[in-house]
Amino acid sequence: MEDSPLIVEYYTDVLCVWAWIAQRRIDEINAQSGPQIVFQHRYIDLFGDTVTRIQEQWADKGLYDGFCDHVCSVAAPYASAPVNSNVWRKTRPSTSTNAHLVIKAVELAEGEQAAIRFALSLRKAFFIDAQDIGNLEILFELVKQQKVEFEPVNQAINSGQAIASLMADYQKGKLQGIKGSPSYVIDGGRQILYGNIGYRVLHANISELLKNPSDEASWC
Q1: Alpha carbon 122 to chain centroid distance?
Q2: pTM of the predicted model as reported, rounded to 2 decimal places
Q3: Phi-psi region for residue 8, left (φ > 0), alpha (ψ -120 to 50) or beta?
């Protein structure tokens, strides 16, 4: 009997630049670990109300222009995470919740892997192409561009199933004490890694759990 894969609950907000930067690390860990590890993508309410967030946190730092400068500067060292200079300066999504809602609808309609691919397409649409992924019309157009059947996605939204699934993510994140994006919950919740965690640190933590030596005594 094969060992069960290591589950990593991966919490992000699609508008978070640090999650955009982390994408390359996730891709590399998946490539190196294969079926030994499964990332369960979950979403948190970080940019649910961007107007209030910017006003409260960036009032004395240039508001949207200041936040744009910050996002561009933190992403600049990472070639795999390009950021369009219009992000937040001109393109200002009101919320990430609509994007999360449609991701969940895609998951219900087409499965988890389709939802993961769609979420990445949304990050690219925002950070590279400066599209407003808070706008439902734009989101629905992106669904069609990804060759996802629109009607089942729309049904998942209209029925309330998609918002229920999203609220389950939001509530679970609160129960697990998730502080921000990205966050990695591993070892059944015993360990939470948060923020701009380097690839080597993340890989080392996951590798130790994958080894799972049967002759290693408990420290308890």
Answers
A1: 10
A2: 0.91
A3: beta
